[in-house]
């Protein structure tokens, strides 16, 4: 795919490159921190990349500046002519580079000072500016080196918080999303061609059965709906889950947090109300990044400091993906537990966790007050011994639809999912038009809309503003 081009009615079309592609850009493309990392890389991309780097380095001997050859040299201070850093230089001539332009990478020593000095020398050269977030990837897309979904997958791979998220990103990077959506788009284009032909030449062509067309369109719609549903699970692997632990004081929330996180993050004590603030621990359970939030025990108190923690606990409830209401199996279900249950928003999955299952004679269900209604814990466990921990993990993932993650092959990101939803809605309108028995040209209106949405999804039909919005979310240097 190649999208480089002049703007026509706001869209990019095949012609001459946008003006900004004529500029030479540079950025540090590796993480930079004092005393961290032995090597840092400065990337320069654009027509002047080679001449810019040549002007700031000294390369001893008779080393040749050839594409995909590594040179050895030094970055030189402009005024003192002293050596700033010892470097390796990698030249990649167009089009055999990441961006499709001439690219030179300067591999200098890591840390902070050396790479900053090298970057300063590069930016001091005429016609060079600092790259914007995602601008290298954007140029790769515009120059046809990457399709849009692959570029987005690179960003997701960099930001992956778990191995499963990285695997899904690799599926996108390998072109899995591009191939799937392009195949569905082609099917819609085929049907649109049939409909357009009947609009113009219906008397000269064989009869086209409406049911046949609708069958093809519905198959595409169902596939898109499956991708949309899968994207919701994919979002869990990318962004993770926020799990709130709530409960009365001293029911074992802090012990459970420590058990799941594998090390002590919260103070564990027999005194009620020990946790006075919200504590967080990040971990990965079965490939899903999870942030577990241990809230202060919610109860009536006159302690102003403790009340602040309780107020924050209520805020955590509203932002949680799953709420674990922990209660003491030996103490039984209390009126306080019932009040807590009522405070959990009904649209947030909740699990009733009976803790201290290691103690003798714990019941498996509890009668609530005078109503006679029974409460049965979703999970019975011991935060002290770990009994029931695996059942808890399975219950958390099941509550969010992330239990069967092995079946997930590709996952659209949020931008892609939104465009797929637009396409599905357009195809649903085609069905409505068919039900009203309107002529073929009415069918084509929404069918074109569906095709346009899928075209934008894979980067075949993009405005400059959309591209800027997509790549502005990338990190600098990518």
Task: Give a topology summary.
Layout (H helix, E strand, L loop, with lengths): L6 E2 L2 E2 L11 E5 L10 E7 L3 H6 L2 E2 L10 E8 L6 E10 L10 E7 L3 H11 L4 E3 L4 H8 L5 H11 L4 H11 L2 H26 L8 H30 L1 E6 L6 H9 L17 E7 L2 E7 L9 H16 L2 E7 L6 H9 L6 E6 L10 E3 L4 E3 L3 E2 L8 H11 L14 H22 L4 H19 L5 H8 L7
Helix pairs in contact: 4-5, 6-7, 6-13, 7-12, 12-13
What does this structure look like?
- The protein has helices at residues 49-54, 113-123, 135-142, 148-158, 163-173, 176-201, 210-239, 253-261, 304-319, 335-343, 389-399, 414-435, 440-458, 464-471, and strands spanning 7-8, 11-12, 24-28, 39-45, 57-58, 69-76, 83-92, 103-109, 128-130, 241-246, 279-285, 288-294, 322-328, 350-355, 366-368, 373-375, 379-380.
- It is α/β, with parallel strands linked by helices and 478 residues long.
- The strands form four sheets. A seven-stranded mixed sheet has the order 5-6-7-8-4-3-9. A six-stranded mixed sheet has the order 11-12-10-13-14-17, sandwiched between helices. Strands 1-2 form a two-stranded antiparallel ribbon.
- The relative contact order is 0.12.
Features:
disordered N terminus, Four Helix Bundle (Hemerythrin (Met), subunit A), alpha/beta, 7-stranded mixed beta sheet, 478 residues, 6-stranded mixed beta sheet, Gyrase A, domain 2
Number of strands: 17
- CATH H-level superfamily of the largest domain: P-loop containing nucleotide triphosphate hydrolases
Total count of helical runs of at least 4 residues: 14
Q: Please describe the biggest sheet, giving its number of strands, its sense, and whether it closes into a barrel.
A: 7 strands, mixed
Structural class: alpha/beta
Report the end-to-end length measured between terminal Cα atoms: 20 Å
Stretches where pLDDT falls below 50 for ≥5 residues? 1-16, 264-276
Oligomeric status of the shown chains?
single chain
Question: Quick one: overall form?
Answer: flat
In CATH, the topology of the largest domain is named Rossmann fold
Give the helix proportion (percent range). Answer: 40-55%
Task: Give the total of domains.
Answer: 3
| CATH class identity of the largest domain | Alpha Beta
Query: Spatial order of the strands in the main sheet?
Result: 5-6-7-8-4-3-9
The portion of residues forming beta strands comes to 15-25%
């Amino acid at each position: 795919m190649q999208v480089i081009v002049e703007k026509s009615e706001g869209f990019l079309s095949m012609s001459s490159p946008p003006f900004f592609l004529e500029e030479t850009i540079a950025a540090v493309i590796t993480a930079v921190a004092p005393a961290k990392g032995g090597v840092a890389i400065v990337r320069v991309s654009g027509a002047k990349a080679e001449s810019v780097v040549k002007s700031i380095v000294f390369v001893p001997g008779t080393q040749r500046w050839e594409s995909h050859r590594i040179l050895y040299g030094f970055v030189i201070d402009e005024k003192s002519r002293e050596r700033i850093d010892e470097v390796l230089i990698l030249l990649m001539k167009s089009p055999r580079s990441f961006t499709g332009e001439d690219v030179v990478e300067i591999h200098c020593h890591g840390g902070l000072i050396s790479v900053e000095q090298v970057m300063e020398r590069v930016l001091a050269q005429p016609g060079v500016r600092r790259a914007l977030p995602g601008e290298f990837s954007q140029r790769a897309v515009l120059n046809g080196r990457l399709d849009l979904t692959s570029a987005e997958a690179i960003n997701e791979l960099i930001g992956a918080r778990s191995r499963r998220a990285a695997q899904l990103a690799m599926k996108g990077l390998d072109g899995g999303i591009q191939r799937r959506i392009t195949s569905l788009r082609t099917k819609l284009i085929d049907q649109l061609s049939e409909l357009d032909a009947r609009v113009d030449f219906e008397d000269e062509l064989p009869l086209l059965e409406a049911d046949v067309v609708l069958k093809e369109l519905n198959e595409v719609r169902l596939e898109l709906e499956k991708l949309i549903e899968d994207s919701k699970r994919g979002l869990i692997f990318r962004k993770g889950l926020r799990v709130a632990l709530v409960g009365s004081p001293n029911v074992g929330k802090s012990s459970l947090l420590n058990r799941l996180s594998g090390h002590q993050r919260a103070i564990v004590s027999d005194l009620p109300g020990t946790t006075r603030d919200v504590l967080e621990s990040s971990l990965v359970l079965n490939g899903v990044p999870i942030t577990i939030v241990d809230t202060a025990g919610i109860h009536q108190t006159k302690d102003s400091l403790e009340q602040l923690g309780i107020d924050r606990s209520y805020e955590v409830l509203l932002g949680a993906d799953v709420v674990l209401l922990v209660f003491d199996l030996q103490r039984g279900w209390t009126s306080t537990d019932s009040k807590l249950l009522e405070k959990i928003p009904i649209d947030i999955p909740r699990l009733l966790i009976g803790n201290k299952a290691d103690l003798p004679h714990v019941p498996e269900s509890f009668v609530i007050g005078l109503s006679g209604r029974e409460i049965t814990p979703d999970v019975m466990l011991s935060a002290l011994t770990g009994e029931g921990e695996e059942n808890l993990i399975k219950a958390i993932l099941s509550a969010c639809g992330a239990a069967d993650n092995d079946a997930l092959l590709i996952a659209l990101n949020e931008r892609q999912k939104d465009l797929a939803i637009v396409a599905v809605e357009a195809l649903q309108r085609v069905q409505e038009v068919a039900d009203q028995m309107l002529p073929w040209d009415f069918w084509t209106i929404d069918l074109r809309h569906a095709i346009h949405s899928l075209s934008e999804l894979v980067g075949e039909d993009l405005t400059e503003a959309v591209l800027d919005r997509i790549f502005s979310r990338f990190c600098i240097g990518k």
